[in-house]
Amino acid sequence: MLDPIGPLPREVYWRRRALAIGVIVLVTALTLWGVTVLAGALIPDRAAAPAPQAAPPPAQPPPPRPRRPRRRARIRTSGSPPNPSAPPTRPGSRSRCA
After folding, report:
1. Domain residue spans in the chain?
2. Label partner for 6 (CA 20 to 30 A): which of 26, 52, 72, 75?
3. CB-based burial of residue 13 (10 Å sphere; 0-12 exposed, 13-18 middle, 19+ buried)?
4. How confident is the model at residue 61, as a pLDDT?
5. Residue 28, Cα to own-chain centre: how many angstroms?
């Protein structure tokens, strides 16, 4: 069957086979497409119902939070005098300078 026997050259028979296979594939594809189109037309409630929508996006983004300035850490060494511009310590807290 793969080796054609006849008066014409081999290529002619292979071209005919390729054409026949192509036509079969095309007819199958068109049939499947037609079935899906008809199936969609037979179900009207699906096509008539509006698609669900997600919640609308907010009109404006929320305002940015106010940023508080960072505090710089005050480092005291045991040999340096206290800073006179430093705020007073809270009552009941222990002072490092004795």
Report:
1. 10-45
2. 26
3. middle
4. 74
5. 35
